[in-house]
Amino acid sequence: MPLTPLESWKLYTSDFESPDLYIDWGFYSLVSSAVQRRVWITNTSKLNGLPTQNSIFLNQFIVFVGPPATGKTRITSNVKAACEHEKNKRIIFDTKTGRQVMVLNAIPCTPDNITFEGLFQFIAKPQNLDCISIKFKNAEGKDVETPYAHNSVTACLEELTVMFTKNAEDVASVLCQAYDSRGMHRYTKTQGVEEIRNCCVNFLAGTTPKDLRRVMNNQIVQQGFSTRVIFVYASEPRFNRYKSENTLEKELAFENLVAHVNQLSTKVCGEIHFSPDADEFLREKVESMKLMKHERVNHDANLDGYYGRKKLHLQKLAAALHLGDRLDS
After folding, report:
1. Nearest Cα to 184, choosing from 150, 217, 219?
2. C-alpha separations of 259 from 102, 208, 263 in Å
3. Residue 71 vs residues 47, 74, 215, 243: alpha-carbon distances, Å
4. HSE of 123 in the Cβ direction (CA atoms, 13 Å)?
5. pTM score > 0.90 for this model?
6. Most CB atoms within 10 A, among 64, 260, 313, 326?
7. pLDDT of residue 102
């Protein structure tokens, strides 16, 4: 029986020293990177079948936190390798002739070290614009297609702080808007107004507790960026291993994983639905205030923003778990 994508990832990382939490959340981040802004939860327009300003997208902000040599970089670098794999491409055809005109990365990844201006300009690059058609039934019950374009990128950083070396407030502001997957625009001194429509950023990085504390001393970063982040902490590697051995079995497992990622990044699109019982479960959790108050473990006021957004984290993660196993949305 063939391995599932998650089982393939587990096999490929089986002799990594990285803790199980890093391995699991690295996989969830990879799935979110793959679906980009092509898949959304709820609030599809009845007029054109496209997502609205109230739709929820599957992008996640995940930060591995731990001492040096815990295995953070091992996972972030391999997630990025899966995103940029030579077989994970998006092929552009001429609509009139049907000929292939361009081959692009299906998941655009930011450079390892990028400034605020560079981040904005990278997201806005024309080659990062993905143009697809969304199929839906109109008011008359007919099957129609609506053009849909989005700018989605992934940031897989070995160290979180490289993005916050200067202009931390501006970087945090851009990332907060990109997390909500809406449009962005900024005024520049020499380039006029720069605008990005349908922006979406998936974020994965690692850092140490000391460096995280330094970044979070900025109040704007703390209140805006941190409430959108899932911080995954581990105090030590899961074992000590002299070196990682490459095998044919592991290479084939990685190829199987990349094949699934490519299907997600080029074929799967549209709204994803919760089953009625799952929908009712989440409704009761949120509206009874269990998530925000009654089942809350830590009542520190600094975590109010995180608990306020926990309903979003739950929905994004649930959808990523589903699409990590199958291709139907």
Report:
1. 150
2. 20, 33, 6
3. 48, 5, 21, 13
4. 36
5. yes
6. 64
7. 79
